[in-house]
Amino acid sequence: MNKTIFENKNKGATAIILTFIIITVTLLIASGLSLIFLGEIKQSRLAEYTISAFYAADSGVEYALFQIVNNSGDEGDDVILNLTNKAEATVDWSVTGKMIDSLGFFSGTNRRVQLTW
Length: 117
Prior knowledge:
It is a single chain. The protein is of the alpha+beta class. The chain has one domain. It has one helix at 2-69; strands at 79-82, 88-94, 99-106, 109-116. It has a four-stranded antiparallel sheet with strand order 1-2-3-4. The radius of gyration is 31 Å and the shape is rod-shaped. The chain crosses the membrane at residues 12-38.
């Protein structure tokens, strides 16, 4: 009879240990997945900054083309454009060298667009 009581006590301890192991494994998997998700969120934010910086550089090229077509700008001067989304672009162009160089900035990210003809 003592043997049966001893077995019942072990079954309770086994269930607790098994539950602890299952909870630990579940928490490890959840924390690993959360790290992956946080990395993906960060990457998508950086992609958004990259797009804004590229569009700022593209706006600089459009500005330079407008100045060239209308003969209203001084070539060789760096022009800084402050855009409404807090992005900026630095533009330099040369009609004789047939080149436009525009560098867009947004939240620490920069992208360059160069145009030659």
